[in-house]
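=== RUN LOG ===
request id: a7f3
mode: sequence -> structure
chains: 1
length: 174
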Amino acid sequence: MTLYFITGNKGKFKEVKSIIPSVKQIDLDLPEIQELDPKKVIEEKLKEATKKHKGEFFCEDTSVYINEMNGLPGPLIKWFLKSMGLKGIYGLASKFKSRKAVASTMIGYTNGKKIKFFEGKLKGKITKPKGTGFGWDPIFQPDGFNKTLGEMSLIEKNKISMRKKALEKLKNYL
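=== RESULT ===
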């Protein structure tokens, strides 16, 4: 059976495809609830997806939790990026003593009957925007590295990323 990754984001799909080569992309227009629990966000997306498509598929939520902001923006990072941009998020984080953060990818997989979750985490800090990449990659610098995810090649990023860690757990499950 074909495994589908639900996303409209070409950058995410490219990363996923480099880790699970057999995966196919499916771009379904799904509502995204506003919720601080990424499992609830994913669960709602998968419930809607099963109404529109049959088969095995997964989606993900990749969040950034800034320690001194009590975990915000978390799953709301997409909306923080839209309203503040990379410079705005960095400016906000730099007002705190520490800019430490955790990047987390939560994957939800379903075969149409039940949902399983897989999480990968990466510790780091919010930094001045550097590099390209997509989303918030240019402002997240992993611990032990002197460059942001946005400055890393896909090969470098996929050796350490939270998405890779979550995808490896999904692969082992499958």
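=== NOTES ===
The helical segments are 10-19, 38-52, 77-93, 154-160, 162-173.
The radius of gyration is 16 Å.
=== END ===
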